[in-house]
Write the structure tokens for this entry.
Amino acid sequence: MSKASLYQLAGEIGPLHSSAIEAAGRHLDQLTKPPGSLGRLEEVARQLAGITGETVPSLGKKAVIVMAGDHGVCEEGVSAFPAEVTPQMVLNFLNGGAAVNVLSRHAGADVVCVDIGVNAELDHPQLYSRKVRKGTRNMAKEAAMTEEEALQAIQVGIDLVKELVDDGYSLFATGEMGIGNTTASSALLAVLTGTDIGTAVGRGTGINDEKLLHKQAVIERAIKLNQPDADDPIDVLAKLGGLEIAGLTGVILGAALHRRPIVIDGFISSAAALIASRIASQSVSYMIASHLSQETGHARLLEAVGLSPMLHMDMRLGEGTGAVLAFPLIEASVKVMKEMASFASAGISSSDQ
């Protein structure tokens, strides 16, 4: 995929169906409740109608796509955990033992685990092996990826969504695993929004004050060295991002292309959402922000994309954990549309009578 072909594809993402949104709004106002009293549930119901073109949408199978990749910048000692944890956690996902597995089982969703850039040889029957390269380069010394590698990783995400849509999935969430990826995401936030390093950079897996200052200095050095073009999201992604972030960018664009809702998880997923929004502004209409992470820059990222989180749970795990927690609420909005009585059917006087 070339940059030109990506932008051409992004141009195919259409607006939401306004007539379906209006019809959903009228339907909601006829139900036995004061207008707008279900708040965000009604907002999500209208959004789903606009995405699908159905006044009362039908949601099928659910999947959280967990993209995994390593980061060369871990050489700089920016994380509380060693890089070896990435492949170890991927195996944990595949064996069903991680938090995202537990919460996905609770929500009735499938975990789709993708090796897009793990610095290890992994083999498992449930693994989606889509490795672009074994981890990014150290962005404090050189560009994390070439432009071609970043575009290839985006293509992986776009193609995977098509594959899953063909298999009957209609509701998606973003998830990730990659030691060092809060460093990459903080760098993306700083460059793309002009956020100062102190606000953009958080503690990630739980680093102390000394390591936090070191992490900030590493990011400043990487930005100065690579000189990313803030007006070119692909350039910024390639120089400072991660393979899993690029893959999730493709997942978000792919969901929008296929008119499927995409639930955005935490800080790293929101960095991918920001990249996707800069490539295709229309893609934001298909995104649902699940929660507000404890990571310092997450609120700024969501603001930059134009999203408002559904949940405030003080979480900072990633993996897609916050996103799958939002699945039951999204399904609840559809059940309200399908199952709630209208004033007329229940024989109740409405506010306009």
In short: The chain has a mean pLDDT of 96. The CA atoms of residues 96 and 119 lie 21 Å apart.
